[in-house]
Structure prediction request, 398 residues.
Amino acid sequence: MFRRYWLGTMATAGSLQVLQIGVGWLVVTDLNGGAGVLGIIGGAIAVPSILVTLFGGVLADRIDRRVVLMVTSAANGLLMTLLALLVVTETVEIWHIVLIAAGQGVLGGFDLPVRAAFFPQLVKREHMPSAVSLHGVAWHLSRLITPTVGGLSIRYLDTESVFFAGAGGWVAMLLIMFTLRTTQSESAARRNILQELGEGFGYIARNRLFAVMIPLTAVKTIFGLQYLTLMPLFAVRHGVQADGFGVFYLSLSLGAITGVIVVQRFQHSLNAGKIMLVAGIVFSGLVVAFAYSPNYWSALVAIFLVGIPHMIFITLSMTVLQVRVAPELRGRVIGIYTLALSMIPLGGLVGGGMAELLDERLALSISAGVFGIATLWVFATQRVVRNLTGADEIAPAQ
Prediction:
C-alpha cells in the first residue's frame, strides 16, 4: 500500500510544483507583476492555510484520513482546472489567482496534516526512518521531472498546459486513495474541538524536544525557504527563459535527493542532533551564496548545494518527531508540526515585501541569516536537541 501511496504523493507533489512554476511565470511575465504580487499570492495561500491547519490536525484524529485526502484531491484538481481554463480563455487576472490561491490554502490546511498523519499507518515503526526519507524523495523526484517539463511546456505549449497537467496529478491521487484500505486507531472520547487542540499544544509544551524543534522548523520555513517564492526574480536577474527557470528547481531537487542519500549515513549516528543543527547552519550560508551568485551557472551550483543540508535537517527532524509522538495525539501534534512546515507562502509574503523595499538578494540573505542565528542558538543552549542520537529515532512514543 505504501508503494501506491508513494506514487500518488509524487503525482500531487508534481502538481503543486508545476502550479508554483506556472503561477510565478504567469504573474511575472504575462501579468507584469513583481515581488509584491508574488508576496500577496503567497499570503493568500498562507493565511487560510495557517488558520485551517490546526483544525485539520484535530480532524485527522477524528475521522477517516483516507476520505479527507480523497475530498482534498478532488477539490484541488477542480481549482487547477479552473485556473487552466481562465488562462486558455485569456480572462485570467491577478485577483483570480489570489482567490484560487486562497482556496488551495484552505484545502492545504486540511490535506497536509492529514497526509502527514496518514502515511505512518502504512508502515511499521521500525520502517519509519525509511518511510520519512522516501516521503521526501517523492517530492524531490517529482522536481527532477516537473521543472524541466513544466518550463518546456510553458515555452512551447503555453502556461495553461502546466495547470491541466497539475489537475491530472490530483486526479491520480484521488484514484489511488480509492484503492487503499487502512485501519486507524480509535481516538479517545470526543470533546470540544478547541479542547482537543489544546491537548496537542499541551503535549508539545511538556515535551522539550517538540517544544524546540517545531518552532525552529517554523523559523526555517518562514525565513529559510523564501528562495522558493522569489525564484522567478532570480531567473529574470540572470536573463533566462521559462525552461532555464525550471532548471533552478531541477538543480535544487538533485541536491535534495543527494541529501536524502547522505542522511542515510547519519540516521543512526550518535551525533544525529549535532549533524542536523550543523546542516541548518550550513544551509543558511549556502542560501546567501545563491542570492549573490554572479551568474546563472554559479546560481545553479549554489541551489544544488542548498538542497543537501535542507534535506538532512528536515529528514532527521521529521523522523524523530513522527516516531516519538503519542499515537492517540498524532493528528493534532503532527498537524501543528505541519503548520510549521506549511508557512512557505507566509515567508513569501515577508520576502516579497522585503524584496520590493530592498532587492531580492539582500532580502533573501537577511532572512537566511535569521534562521542561521536561530539554529546557532538551539545548538548552544538546547542539549535535548544537540545530543539526539540515531537511537532516539526508534525510541518509544512518550
Summary: Residues 2-180+193-394 form a domain with the Growth Hormone; Chain: A; fold (CATH 1.20.1250.20). The chain has one domain: 2-180+193-394.
